[in-house]
UniProtKB/TrEMBL annotation:
Superkingdom classification of source: Bacteria
Function comment: Specifically dimethylates two adjacent adenosines (A1518 and A1519) in the loop of a conserved hairpin near the 3'-end of 16S rRNA in the 30S particle. May play a critical role in biogenesis of 30S subunits.
Keywords: Cytoplasm, Methyltransferase, RNA-binding, rRNA processing, S-adenosyl-L-methionine, Transferase
PROSITE patterns: RRNA_A_DIMETH, SAM_RNA_A_N6_MT
Protein name: Ribosomal RNA small subunit methyltransferase A
Location in or out of the cell: Cytoplasm
Ribosomal RNA adenine methylase transferase N-terminal domain: residues covered: 35-210
GO terms for cellular component: cytosol
Organism: Candidatus Eisenbergiella merdipullorum
Alphabetical list of CDD domains matching this protein: AdoMet_MTases (cd02440)
Length: 297
């Protein structure tokens, strides 16, 4: 089988199987061999690695990964693509295709069953309609993953790297930077895909930290706090947190905590660094503890 990553070979496969693109699945297939090589290079894939690929499509990137990796597990939601993958990946017995929604897959279990519990390298040209839920799942499920190399919208890639004060800075930037070191490694113009997306794309590599760069008592509370802080972006943090559902913080507690940290009560979430959010989470939690337990520590 000839490699797929060119417009003519991709169109031939699409014709052969009478494949119709499903908009709802964010299907834009890569047709540029140089960009495919660049992704696999950035993903640092070698024979000792088991790669988890999200959304193999017709198997274009999968072919490149299978040539370098020990094994590849490719999770594809669209069942119309499964027979096509059987054909395009026939020469690669080290690939396992799973017809599932990645958001429903238990990745830790998959790693136990297919990779002796060792970490995966995740590589994907992601479906853009669920980029953030997928990234959050990869991090928050605490599945063993040490490197994530993904194609996303350029705007989203930039958001992951932003710091305080920028308009693009938000909950996604903080989550990504808590768990990993983000690095944009390539820009990919729309004409490298069939069909061409309406937005520019970039490849970003997220190198997972062994220990996060800030210490916090309760990670889940930190992320509830961060989400609440950016849910009502235009409000001051004091007002936003005081109203936030599921956080159980009063306006007075929020104001007092900010005062204790030497931060203005009129500050907005977008001005706070990851370190400041971590300290704020700890101070707020301290206030929530029943009085008797404070002395026990
Ligand atoms: N990897 C191929 C390539 O680079 O040419 C296709 C990438 S395309 C942008 C995204 C792929 O993800 C599609 O094949 C789509 O069907 C699949 N997909 C969409 N939602 C998914 C989900 N929830 N779980 C698994 N795969 C999904």
């Amino acid at each position: 089988m000839e490699k797929l990553g060119t417009p003519s070979n991709t169109l031939e496969i699409l014709r052969k199987y009478g494949f119709h693109f499903q908009k709802k699945y964010g299907q834009n297939f890569l047709v540029d061999p140089d960009k495919l090589e660049a992704i696999v290079d950035a993903a640092d894939v070698g024979e000792e690695d088991c790669v988890l690929e999200i959304g193999p499509g017709i198997g274009t990137l999968t072919q490149y990964l299978a040539e370098r990796a020990g094994s590849v597990i490719a999770v594809e939601i669209d069942k119309a693509l499964i027979p096509i993958l059987g054909d395009t990946l026939a020469d690669h017995p080290n690939v396992t295709v799973i017809n599932e929604d990645i958001l429903k897959v238990d990745i830790a279990r998959l790693s136990r069953e297919k990779n002796e519990g060792r970490p995966f390298k995740v590589v994907a040209n992601l479906p853009y309609y669920i980029t953030t839920p997928i990234i959050m799942k990869l991090f928050e499920s605490h599945a063993p993953i040490d490197l994530i190399t993904i194609m996303v919208q350029t705007e989203v890639a930039e958001r992951m790297q932003e710091g305080p004060g920028s308009k693009e800075y938000g909950a996604l930037s903080l989550a990504v930077q808590y768990y990993s070191k983000p690095e944009i490694v390539a820009h990919v113009p729309a004409e490298c895909f069939i069909p061409a997306p309406k937005v520019g794309s970039s490849v970003i590599r997220l190198t997972r930290y062994e220990t996060p760069p800030v210490k916090v008592r309760d990670e889940a509370f930190l992320f509830r706090l961060i989400r609440a802080s950016f849910n009502q972006r235009r409000k001051t943090l004091t007002n936003g947190l005081g109203n936030a559902e599921g956080l159980d913080v009063t306006k007075a507690e929020a104001a007092e905590a900010l005062r204790e940290l030497g931060i203005s009560e009129n500050v907005r979430g977008e001005a706070l660094s990851l370190e400041q959010f971590a300290r704020l989470a700890d101070v707020l939690l301290e206030k929530k503890k029943p009085v008797g337990t404070k002395a026990l520590e």
